[in-house]
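Q: Please design a sequence for this.
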């Protein structure tokens, strides 16, 4: 396949090739929201059908997120060694098999097993898509590309829960995984026509060489700061993912369809906010954009926790959630760009490591949102404040002080 020289730059590609690459990478990074968000309206139904506790059904989200975190650690170095295309295609094949396994699962523990491998295989799409972006872009151009990816990716949280909610009108929760299987087949097909972006001369010589990059990355205080920032902020976000279905459906008594619309509304905000880094790149320093994308949700999460404590109305909670969640797309684009901009040939491993961190705490936080039962939102609020608070601390102690203008 034709390899592109990264020095040519993303903007020097033909318009048709740029559009195809944006859509292709956007679909690959959308695996995470498709695997979780489409399934969210069905969580209470799964709990009843399998006769399990709230925390145990939320563990089904944890297993997928944990699989995505660990899968990136393998897929990133593999893509540095073998190129981007082959690991991506194999990952999509395993994703198809695991999704279909979820359709057939009758036991919660078998279901958890397949959910883990859905995430583990889907991780290849997430981490390799970011590495491909680094193959073809750098500097402000990379920030713009990440911002565009966040916008394309932002469409998935809008449409996924709506689709999941509508499926429940005429079928049970298993139909969601039938659709995910079909999506996996489609993504595997698109991988076959992707043109390799990592030339052979730029690849790692062996897997050991790839794995040796991790200790080097850990010793980079600035890069580690971005890893921890993503860890804490996404941990807060994933507590929202796992807890919001129960908060809205059990506490505020909305239907699965109304909940899916609420989730889509916040997802639309994420997509629209993703425009900001692309518009501001080159005008306002990325570090400034990142600072405010961390501070705004910290204030929002504090107000949200107060809203939960004083049993605020649904309208108030929606406004506060919007303020708290929407800056995530800005933070993600800015942080990924800043973190990877210094990594060069380590892009695959660096993308894997920061992607793992972004999901690791979320995997642990998800079951905690249901620790006090399904009739209180306080655990979710406390986890969100803690995550954003720690993220702000890391920004000032490890990123802002080490950032070179």
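A: Design:
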């Amino acid at each position: 396949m034709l390899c592109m020289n990264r020095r040519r730059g993303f903007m020097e590609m033909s318009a048709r090739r740029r559009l195809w690459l944006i859509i292709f990478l956007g679909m690959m990074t959308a695996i995470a929201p498709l695997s979780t968000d489409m399934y969210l309206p069905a969580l209470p139904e799964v709990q009843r059908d399998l006769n399990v506790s709230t925390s145990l059904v939320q563990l089904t989200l944890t297993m997928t997120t944990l699989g995505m975190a660990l899968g990136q650690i393998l897929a990133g170095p593999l893509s540095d060694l073998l190129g981007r295309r082959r690991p991506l295609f194999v990952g999509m094949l395993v994703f198809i098999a695991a999704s279909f396994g979820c359709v057939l699962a009758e036991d919660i523990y078998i279901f958890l097993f397949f959910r883990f491998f859905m995430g583990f295989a889907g991780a290849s799409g997430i981490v390799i898509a970011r590495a491909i972006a680094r193959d073809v872009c750098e500097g402000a151009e990379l920030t713009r590309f990440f911002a565009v990816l966040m916008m394309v990716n932002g469409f998935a949280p809008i449409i996924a829960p709506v689709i999941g909610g509508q499926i429940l009108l005429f079928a049970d929760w298993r139909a969601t995984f039938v659709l995910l299987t079909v999506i996996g087949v489609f993504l595997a097909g698109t991988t076959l026509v992707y043109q390799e972006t990592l030339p052979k001369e730029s690849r790692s010589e062996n897997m050991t060489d790839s794995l040796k990059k991790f200790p080097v990355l850990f010793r980079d205080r600035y890069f580690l700061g971005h890893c921890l920032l993503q860890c804490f902020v996404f941990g807060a976000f994933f507590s929202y993912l796992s807890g919001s279905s129960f908060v809205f459906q059990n506490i505020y008594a909305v239907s699965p369809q109304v909940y899916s619309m609420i989730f889509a509304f916040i997802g639309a905000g994420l997509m629209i906010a993703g425009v900001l880094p692309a518009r501001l790149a080159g005008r306002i320093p990325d570090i400034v954009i990142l600072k405010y994308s961390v501070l705004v949700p910290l204030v929002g999460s504090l107000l949200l926790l107060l809203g939960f404590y004083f049993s605020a109305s649904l309208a108030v909670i929606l406004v506060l959630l919007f303020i708290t969640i929407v800056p995530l797309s800005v933070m993600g684009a800015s942080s990924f760009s800043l973190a990877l901009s210094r990594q060069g040939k380590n892009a695959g491993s660096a993308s894997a490591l920061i992607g793992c961190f972004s999901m690791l705490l979320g995997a642990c936080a998800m079951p905690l949102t249901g620790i006090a039962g399904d009739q209180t939102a306080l655990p979710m609020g406390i986890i969100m404040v803690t995550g954003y608070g720690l993220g702000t601390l890391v920004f000032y102690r490890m990123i802002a002080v080490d950032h070179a203008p």
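Q: Thanks. Anything notable?
A: The radius of gyration is 20 Å. The first helix runs from residue 15 to 29.
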